[in-house]
Amino acid sequence: MATPRQSVREVTVDADHDGQRLDNFLMREIGSVPRSLVYRLIRTGQVRVDGGRAKPMRKLARGETVRIPPVQATGGPASVPDGVIERIRGAIVHRQSELLVVDKPSGIAAQAGSGLAWGLSDAVARIVPDAVPVHRLDRETSGLMVFAVGRTAAAELQKAFRERRVDKKYLALLDGRLREDRVEVDAPLSKVRDGSGQHRVVVDEAGDAARSTFQRLETIGHRDFVEVRIETGRTHQIRVHAAHLGAPVAGDERYNERPDSVPGLERLFLHAAALRLPWPEDQLFGAPLPHDLDEPLDALRGASA
């Protein structure tokens, strides 16, 4: 078992970790602890960046100082059910020395936190101990997620995502029709808390830049099946932009007033279907629609024929 850290540490972010997310930086610095503990340390303000509170996904900059409290390492990763480990092992699309690509199932969070004892990153770490996520998908979204293996790979891949050199393609079913075959949305987004206390994302001119392009692939009745490409990666970006167009994503319980309008659909109809990485070489990965999306889609086609 690892020795506990007995005092607060002040760690300066070096060039190798410029742009790395705070949660991933802490996992490397602290050692073998559940990711849920890292999130709790951040949430309670025990971790500080240049003296201030920060979000887990805050991108660190070279020269910033991170306050790390004393932590008892557990000597092992978070406890993940064996069945989940095997399911994720079977969902690995590609694996090489620098990275692996996983077809994340819907319903599994990318990371622990907010009452979740484990996430996909913990399951992947049981398979490849040095693997860390370099981006994320919403819990309800399925599809391709990239994990870096080792410090150099993490820095290179995070830089590629930060510089928008990674091409990402999503498939979605909209509860509505696009006004044209191709629609570009340039609508800044902000996070708010609604009257019930739930976090939501809204279009806000004072928010963070967010750009999405919707391309109609097929019209089925009064719905469009679309491909979506995003230039930015804001929380709930596609879901909010789709609702902003008046055609929310089918099955979206947060931004669609009629999430159960598609027979047989029991989840958000959003899937990260293709991803192109520029490092360590140009590679394109794909993941077909899972059965829980493909079957309701085929049923709609049959009903509209």
Keywords, separated by commas or semicolons:
alpha+beta, 23% helix, disordered N terminus
Describe this structure in words.
The chain has 305 residues and is an alpha+beta fold. The chain has helices at residues 22-30, 35-43, 82-90, 120-127, 151-162, 237-244, 291-304; strands at residues 9-12, 48-49, 65-68, 92-95, 99-104, 131-133, 142-149, 167-174, 182-186, 189-193, 199-203, 211-220, 223-230, 270-277, 283-286. The chain contains seven helices and 15 strands. A hairpin with a 5-residue loop joins strand 10 (189-193) and strand 11. It is globular and about 65 Å long. The N and C termini lie far apart (63 Å). The model is unreliable at 1-6 (pLDDT under 50).
Concise overview:
With 305 residues, this protein is an alpha+beta fold.
List the helices and strands and how they pair.
Layout: E1 9-12, H1 22-30, H2 35-43, E2 48-49, E3 65-68, H3 82-90, E4 92-95, E5 99-104, H4 120-127, E6 131-133, E7 142-149, H5 151-162, E8 167-174, E9 182-186, E10 189-193, E11 199-203, E12 211-220, E13 223-230, H6 237-244, E14 270-277, E15 283-286, H7 291-304
Parallel strand pairs: 7-14
Antiparallel strand pairs: 1-3, 2-3, 4-5, 5-7, 6-7, 8-13, 8-14, 9-12, 10-11, 12-13, 14-15
Helix pairs in contact: 3-4
Radius of gyration from CA coordinates: 20 Å
The unreliable regions are: 1-6
What is the 3D shape? Answer: globular
Number of helices: 7
Termini separation:
63 Å
User: Main β-sheet, in a few words?
Assistant: 10 strands, mixed
> Which structural class fits the helix and strand makeup?
alpha+beta
Q: What string gives the helices and strands in order?
A: EHHEEHEEHEEHEEEEEEHEEH
What proportion strand? 25-35%
Q: Classify the helix fraction into a percent range.
A: 10-25%
Total beta strands: 15
Average pLDDT: 90
